[in-house]
Amino acid sequence: MSQWITSLEGTEAGHTTALILAIMAAFLHALFGALQKGRHDPWLSRGAIDLSYGLIAAPFALFVVPWPEPHMWPIFATVFVIHVGYKLLQGFTYSRGAYTVVYPIVRGTGPLFTVIGAYFLFGETFNGVQWAGLATLLAGIYGLAIYNLRTITAQRDTMVSAMLLAIATGLFVALYTTYDAYGIRATADPFTFLAWFFFIDGLFFMPPVAGYLWWRNPDRPDLGPLMARGVLGAFVAFFSFGAIMLATRLDSVGEAAVLRETSTVFAALIGWAVLGEKVGPRRLTLMALIALGAVIVEMGG
User: Do residues 62 and 295 lie in contact, with contact meaning Cβ atoms separated by under 8 Å?
Assistant: First the structure.
């Protein structure tokens, strides 16, 4: 599998594969966000997910994939710090704001700064058509956030702070997207990076930390359903984050990041189908605008 992935780098087949991986990551990332925001406290859900994927990834990292090269350890340390910051901000954001308001803001902030970061880190550039597509996508995403803000009544008292936290979370999305792309390109075997990433990233919610989060919650859920959600979220994370990381190795980091932000469309559909949130003609129009922007970016490239 590793040899097949590396053989696709810089080829038209690699571009097509990256496109498919980015769209798959978009759907799964929206599902991942809904799992964290859903029935249980976001901190407990995230703790259960991270603990699960850290434990599942451990034997693959230690015994299956090649061990990381020496220069990878400082990269993994930086990745860990960035993702801890992202998870803390995301947890505070989901705790204080309605999912369909804060999620579009997080995802809308991410791609703009990812494109800028990819220019400085990898020398990638967007042409005029692609910038127009990005502007279209961002207009749809932020328009969706504003519309949701005007119509949703849940958690209104904390909505302003939730939106500010969502912007900060989006900046960390851009930071981890570009730096993770750097990390997966820095090792010979991409699956070495993925296995060790999930193993190390899961260490933040080690059993004592996860146990404390569960114990301090006054409305503690039963451990069985919580851990079942954690294991499900772990496999969603493997395919979601794994897919976008592989996409950034195979093709343009900026294009992959923009395509992933069609997750906002999937998030709105999940909010409607699963969380019982309404989707009217205005929201459908804004969702179509997001998809159109992604298409323009892809066709423009």
Answer: no
Query: What's the CA gap between 143 and 162, in Å, rounded?
Result: 17
Amino acid identity of residue 10, one-letter, is: G
Position 72, amino acid: M
Of the spans 88-97, 139-148, 243-252, 261-270, which averages the highest pLDDT? 243-252
pLDDT digits (tens, 9 = 90+) for 208-233: 566 666 566 666 667 777 788 889 88
Q: Which helix (H) or strand (E) holds 100?
A: helix 99-122
Question: Residue 176 — left, alpha, or beta (φ > 0 → left; ψ -120 to 50 → alpha)?
Answer: alpha
Query: What confidence tier does 149 reach under pLDDT thresholds 50, 70, 90?
Result: confident
Strand, coil or helix: 223: helix
Burial-class residue 114 by CB neighbours within 10 Å (0-12, 13-18, 19+). Answer: buried
d(CA 256, CA 3): 21
Highest mean pLDDT: which of 35-44, 187-196, 227-236?
Answer: 187-196
Are the C-beta atoms of 267 and 98 separated by less than 8 Å? no
The residue among 183 and 137 whose pLDDT is bigger is 183
Residue 143, both tokens: 């328009």
258-to-8, 108, 111, 232, 254 alpha-carbon distances in Å:
21, 9, 5, 26, 6
Phi-psi domain of 68 (left: phi exceeds 0; alpha: psi -120 through 50; beta: other): beta
Alpha carbons 87 and 83: distance in angstroms, whole number: 6
Q: Map residue 178 onto helix, strand or coil.
A: helix
Q: Report d(CA 4, CA 15) in Å as an integer.
A: 14
How far apart (Å, rounded) are the C-alpha atoms in residues 287 and 40? 27
Residue 191 contacts residue 184 (beta carbons within 8 Å): no
Q: What is the pLDDT of residue 255?
A: 84
Average pLDDT, the chain: 82
Helix (H, G, I), strand (E, B) or coil at 177: helix
Q: Which two tokens stand for residue 274?
A: 């699963």
